[in-house]
Structure formats: structure tokens, C-alpha cells
Amino acid sequence: MKQQDIVIQNPTGLHARPAKIFVNIAKGFQADIRVFHGEKKANAKSLISLLTLGVESGSQIHIEVDGEDEDAALTALVEVIESGLGEEELIERVANEVEQAPEAVAPEKEGKPQTESTALPENSIQGIPGAPGIVIGPIYHLKHTEIKVEETFESESAEKNQLQAAIEKAKGQLTRLHAQMLAQGVGSEAAIFDVHMELLDDVELLDAVLAKINQRQSAALAWQSTIDARAKVVAGLDDPLLAARAADLHDVGYRVLRILAGADGENSVFPDHPVVVVADDLSPSDTASLDRDKVLGFCTASGGPTSHTAIIARALSLPAVVSAGERVLALDDDITVILNGDSGWITLKPGDDEIAKAKAMQQAGQETRLEAQRVSGEPAITIDGHRVEIAANIGGAAEAREALISGAEGVGLLRTEFLFLERTNPPLEDEQFAVYRDIAQAMQGAPVIVRTLDVGGDKPLPYIKMPEEINPFLGVRGIRLCLARPELLREQLRAVLRAAQQGTLRIMFPMVSDLSELLAARALADEICTELDVPSVEMGIMIEVPSAALMADVFAEHVDFFSIGTNDLTQYTLAMDRMHPQLAGKSDGLHPAILRLIDATVKAAHDAGKWVGVCGELGADPQAVPILVGLGVDELSVTVPAVPTVKAQVRALDYSETQTLARRALACATASDVRQLVEK
């Protein structure tokens, strides 16, 4: 037996993501691996077991490894711990600052959660704008339907078969939700499903459930009691990040329990009248499945403006306020509120004057949207004659048709991942060709930018075996994966170049960080053009990492255009995971550091006679649009529902004024300062 003491140095201890990395490495060895922390012991191959240790940053653990490959196992685990389990030193500093000064998480103008010291009217709560729009209605706290578990028992084999079937069905649902998130353009947020899948494969959890079945408990009762017990332990941990994983355990546990109890497909029972939903947070599946006939909008206590919740809400045109603080959870059902997704304000029990004002704003907003839709086919030209192209981000042929109807002047981002996921083999060239051809034809000659396959690391493909990565966001993904698996890229490029003969298709390579990657990809495309005897097409790259933005002048000599992916650019520049529960409110694309990178990219491109688009969430942010226009961005590519309103906003701008605004924004110190500047 081998053993070693070691200190956990990464900033958040063994919370979900680092623990998942640790567990997956442990699973790669045959040896029995145990982890001790104080008086507690855990199976290193069980995520739940490891989480219950409550290991915080700076804590010492003791690892014992017993088996044939014990030396290699201990070495691998020690190495991954010493490497930081996928977390950066900068995150540690920011996390410590947040812990010492919680008010810094979301400054007042960014939508700081309500506190006693906040100077707000007594009947108001301020959160962060999640999705635009104003609604008035009664509150309804989102609760799932209570599952009644029958204490029946058939036989050990029958109950175990039921359990396994339910788990497999739940995995299938999670896989479909992952694909659905990608199709809606929120693939990065699907990472939560990776943790859920890991929980369903947890060896200790399954062993505990099977042991209860052996004691003649039904599969449903055994599953429910085991999940509840473990979630209670995790929720009781001192570390709030670790304790928050209890919600994940309940979520995935409830999914399996519904299947076992025959209540699959049921979710929450809504009143028979429209409501404003209130919840601590909403999962992607919760948000995507909200019934628009019954839900006016929603407010969450946690989350941030770039969270999966907010992104889906904007895609659904569902007004939302996020990060409003725990006070909203204590509100009574049925009290009337005004939810303002534009400002992030919630007004409780509004008076007649407040309701009248909100209705007037509603009416004005509705008229603005209707007018925007009426003239959506007209170009977006500022009042002093500067034109900005407005395109759409889409994930399939159906959205292409909707984009054209909405007034989109093209497709600024076609996500192709939907073709590759939820299958056991990669799509053949002819299958891809048919899809790209249909999209090109649906756009009736308008340009379509096809982003090559952007998976790997956090978005694995089942038919490509890849080693577990310590930090998948910094691993083999995007163009790196495609160059490592050139057969995938070759088939896709052949399909795109063939389809380009029947429409206007352009090619864009994702996650490019080094010139050699771009040159290799372009060389392959040129080779295929020769093979097919077809003309080349315009090619560009995503600007998603700081190195690409800082070297834009070098890249500009080898591309036809740039498209700035502000979601990832913000994440990588600020070293903040936008899904992080404490940092979501600070992961803001209007941070001056991001704006300076955008400014550098635009200048480098224009100096070389190339154009620049923005295809991240920032492109549809009403406060960001005038700054992006002022920085000289040539194209904004947004979700389909946002196309008419963004075009209308651009038409109301004075380009010379936006240039002045942009220069002042570049000189700001914080994202909060930038947003205050725009408000003024």
C-alpha cells in the first residue's frame, strides 16, 4: 500500500469541478483509493463521497492507494493536485476578495443583490438585468411536483432492473438536453450536465441503493432515501461552494425518481393564470421548458447575466431579473410585482401610480418592438449615415428561415455541433452537405458564416476517445481538436465547400490562439478546393482568447474577417467562469479590458482592410450596442428574436456620439463605470 499527505492548494478546495477531475483520474486505475480528511474517509472514485469530506483550500488530506498499479495511481493523483486541479492562481485572488467583501460581487449599477445598506425604496429589490422586458403579475415560487413513492417490492432482480433502466433513461435525457443547449446557442452552460452524468455513475451512491434493494426496499424508495441522505450531508458542509452541490444532487436525483415513480414528463404544476416565477436558480431544462402562456417572466435569487438561465431567457424573449438575492425567496406567493428586465428592478406590491407607469413603459416597449419588427427588413443605419450589418446566430435550417423573416442580413454564426452530437458516429460528408446546402438556400443568397466543429474538452464527442483533461476549457478543443483529428475537419470542409456552390457560405475557425493553427487550417481548405475543383470562400477566425486579440494585426494578413466571441473572450480575459456562483455577476463583457481587446482587434482589421463582427451575447446587450458601434464593429450577430430590436437601436444612434462614448468607455476602470457611463 502507498500513502501520502498533501495539501489542497486550489482556491475552492474539492468542490464539484476539481473533485470531478480527481475522481475521473482515480477511476483510471484498478487500485483501491481512499482519501482521509480529519475524521472523515471517502472513496476516491465516488464524487459524492469526495464532496462530503468538505475539503477547503489549504486543507491537508491523506491518500491511501492499494493495488497493482498503486505507484502510478498515487503519482497521477499527486501531480493533478499539485497542478491545481484546473484552477488558476488569479481565480484564488478574486475568490478571496469576494469572500472578504461580498458586496464586490455585483456593484450597485451592475445589479447588486439587495442588502440593508442599499439605498432603495422599501418596496423594491434590485438584481441584475437578465432579459429585457417589463411584466406585471403575481409571484409564483417554482416547486416541483411532489413524488409519492410506493413502498412496493417485486424482487431484487426486478427492482435492480428498474433502477438501471431509470438511470439509463435519465442519462438519455441529459444527453438530449446537452444537445438542446447547443442548438439554442448555450452550449457552454451544458457543463452542468457533465456533473449530473458523473453523479449517476457514482459507485458509492449506486452501491448504497443496491444494498437497500437487497434489504427488500423498492428501487424508488431506496433511491429517494439515499439521495436525500447524501444531499443533506453535502448541504451541511461549511464551504458554501461545496454545499451548493446538494442542489445538483437533488436535481439529478429527482430526474431518476420521476422515472421510477412513473411521473416522467411532469414538472411543476402552475396556476391557471399568468405568473412571475421566483426561484433560487433555474436549470437549463427548467428555463427552456417554461410555458410562455403561463409564465410572464422570472426572477432568480442567484445566477448572473451571462448564466445559462439568462441566455435562454433572452433567446425565448422572456423578461428576467437574476442575482436578486435571497430576499425574493421569502416573498409570499400571489403578491403582485413589477419585474423590469431592462433595469433589474422588482417592485413589490406596487401602487396604482407605479402600475400605471409600468404599463405605459410596457406599451411603449411593445410599440417599439412592433415597429422594429415592421421595419426589420430595412438596414441598420445610424442617423448620421453609418451602416452596421445585423446578422443572426443559428443552430439549424429552421432557425435560418426564422432569421431571414426577422430581418437578419445574414448568419454571423452557424453552430455546427448539432450535427455531431447525440450519435455514435460522426456525420458523413453527404449528410453535412445537405444541411449546409439547405441553410444556404434558406438564406436566399445572404452570407452564412459556418463555424467549424467547436467541441472537445468540456464538450466531448462519444466516438472520439480523449483523455480526461485537468482543465477542459484550456485543453484540446475547437481548432486544436480538429487539427488533431484532421479527418473530421476534412469531411466538414469538403461539405461546406460543396454547399458553397449553391449559396454564399464563409468558413470560420474557432478557438484559434496561434498563427500556425490558422495556417494549417487554411492549407487544408486550399487543398480541398483543389481536389474538388471549386473556388475558395472567405475565411476568418473567432477572436475568443486574448492572444488572438493581441496578435490581430498578424492574423489580419491571413483572414478575410474576424468575429469576436465575447462570451469566451470575457471568460478567458477575466479568468472567471461565468457559471461560478460567486463570480457570475462580475463576468461582464463591458469590462474595459474586454473593450480594449475589441478595440485593438477592430483597428488591426481595419488597417488591413478587413471587417469585424461580434457574435457573443454582448452584441445584443442594449448598453453594449452603442459602444460596439462606436468602436467600429462592422457586424453584430445576435439571437434571432433580438435582430429587429438591435437594428432599431442602431438606427436611433448618432455614430459620432458613439465614437465619443466608446473612447470614454475605454478609459473607465470597471464594467460598472462603463454601464454608468452609458446610462448617463
Task: Explain what the structure shows.
Helix 8 crosses helix 9 and helix 9 (219-235) runs antiparallel to helix 11. The chain starts with a strand and ends with a helix. It is of the alpha/beta class. An eight-stranded mixed beta sheet has the order 5-12-11-7-8-9-10-6. Strands 14-15-16-17-18-19-20-21 form an eight-stranded parallel barrel, surrounded by six helices. Strands 1-4-2-3 form a four-stranded antiparallel beta sheet. The radius of gyration is 26 Å and the shape is globular. The chain has 27 helices and 21 strands. Strand 9, helix 13 and strand 10 form a beta-alpha-beta unit.
From the alpha-carbon coordinates, what is the Rg to the nearest angstrom?
26 Å
Strand order of the largest sheet: 5-12-11-7-8-9-10-6
Q: Specify the structural class.
A: alpha/beta
CATH topology of the largest domain: TIM Barrel
- SS element count, helices: 27
- CATH class wording of the largest domain: Alpha Beta
Global outline: globular
> Level of helix content?
40-55%
The number of E-state strands comes to 21
The CATH architecture classification of the largest domain is: Alpha-Beta Barrel
pLDDT average, as an integer?
Answer: 83
CATH superfamily of the largest domain: Phosphoenolpyruvate-binding domains
- How would you name the oligomeric state of the polypeptide chains in this document? single chain
Strand content: 15-25%
Task: Give a brief description.
The chain is α/β, with parallel strands linked by helices and 680 residues long. It has 27 helices and 21 strands.
List the helices and strands and how they pair.
Blueprint: E1 2-7, H1 16-26, E2 32-37, E3 40-43, H2 47-51, E4 60-66, H3 70-82, H4 89-100, H5 108-111, E5 124-126, E6 128-131, E7 134-141, H6 156-183, H7 191-200, H8 203-214, H9 219-235, H10 240-243, H11 245-260, E8 275-279, H12 284-288, E9 295-300, H13 308-315, E10 320-322, E11 336-340, E12 345-348, H14 352-374, E13 380-381, E14 387-394, H15 397-406, E15 411-415, H16 429-442, E16 448-451, H17 479-484, H18 486-499, E17 505-509, H19 515-532, E18 539-543, H20 546-550, H21 552-555, E19 561-564, H22 566-574, H23 592-607, E20 611-614, H24 625-630, E21 635-639, H25 643-651, H26 655-666, H27 671-679
Helix pairs in contact: 1-3, 6-7, 6-11, 7-11, 8-9, 9-11, 14-25, 15-16, 16-18, 18-19, 26-27
